[in-house]
Write a structure and sequence with these properties.
By secondary structure, this protein is of the alpha+beta class. It has helices at about 25-30, 30-40, 65-75, 90-100, 105-110, 115-120, 125-135, 135-145, 165-185, 190-200, 230-245, and strands at about 10, 20, 50, 55-60, 205-210, 210. Helix 4 packs antiparallel against helix 5 (about 105-110) and helix 9 runs antiparallel to helix 11. This is BTB domain-containing protein.
């Protein structure tokens, strides 16, 4: 959509890709562009600016990928659909450009992309830092939940510079509280109740449906009736509690 022959200005990206655009669309979307285009413009021949196809070329610092995404948000949907941002780097760069050019509504739209599951599953800590740094409360909470799928100490990512030490401490505290909450399940009373309520007693009974179970039993876990589970089950639960302490999320045991 950025090669229309009737466009009245050209934007040039940092990697020298030319975008033929309409001043009207940019002015309606951005007070920044509106103010810039209202300034007295010298004639094409006297401006000293780069001229291409008879139009003034305005260089911008964004690369062509970022500029393409940004302009699609500025254009009417009948001419260009909003881009589907599934890469966090794109989200960060387009968000920064939207903030730079006073595109508040577009900045909010871009922020909504932080709720994209593909982004959250791949880079939850970066998503958290971007959302928290932009004070997007809902997106921050969602990203924080996804960080539970990873160890407590976040990886070193550039976006952590966007948040304060207090923000990081709150995230670590949230992670630790969730880990503590999971450990309350080690009492196993909830599990014992479940199996007794369903009539399925393989976990606690040596005899199951009239058949003798030769599985070695452990004394490490003992239920209220003094029955004990199989060794293999105890080993699995030991590994599960350790894993959940580090990554207190349901996905850890799936």
């Amino acid at each position: 959509p950025f090669d229309h022959p009737k466009a009245d200005i050209i934007l040039r990206s940092s990697d020298y890709v030319y975008f033929r655009v309409f001043r009207l669309f940019l002015s309606l979307a951005s007070p920044f562009f509106e103010a810039m285009f209202e300034l007295p413009q010298p004639s094409v021949h006297d401006s000293g600016d780069e001229i291409k196809d008879g139009l003034v070329v305005i260089p911008v610092t964004e690369d062509s990928r970022t500029l393409d995404h940004l302009l699609r948000f500025c254009y009417p949907s009948t001419l260009a659909e909003d881009p589907n941002l599934e890469d966090l780097t794109d989200v960060v760069q387009v968000s920064e450009a939207a903030r730079k050019y006073s595109l508040e509504l577009i900045e909010k739209k871009v922020g909504n992309a932080l709720g994209n599951q593909a982004i959250l599953e791949k880079e939850p800590f970066r998503a958290f830092a971007v959302a928290c740094g932009s004070r997007m409360e809902d997106e921050t909470r969602t990203a924080a939940r996804y960080t539970l799928r990873h160890p407590l100490m976040p990886p070193k990512v550039k976006e952590l510079e966007l948040i304060t030490a207090v923000d990081l401490r709150q995230l670590l505290h949230y992670h630790a509280k969730c880990a503590d909450a999971v450990q309350t399940l080690t009492s196993l009373s909830w599990m014992e109740y479940h199996y007794r309520a369903t009539g399925d007693r393989w976990l606690t009974d040596v005899y199951h449906y009239g058949e003798h179970c030769d599985c070695p039993r452990t004394n490490k876990y003992r239920f209220k009736d003094n029955s004990t589970p199989p060794d293999w089950w105890a080993e699995y639960m030991d590994a599960t509690w350790i894993a959940l302490r580090d990554r207190p999320s349901g996905t850890t045991v799936l």
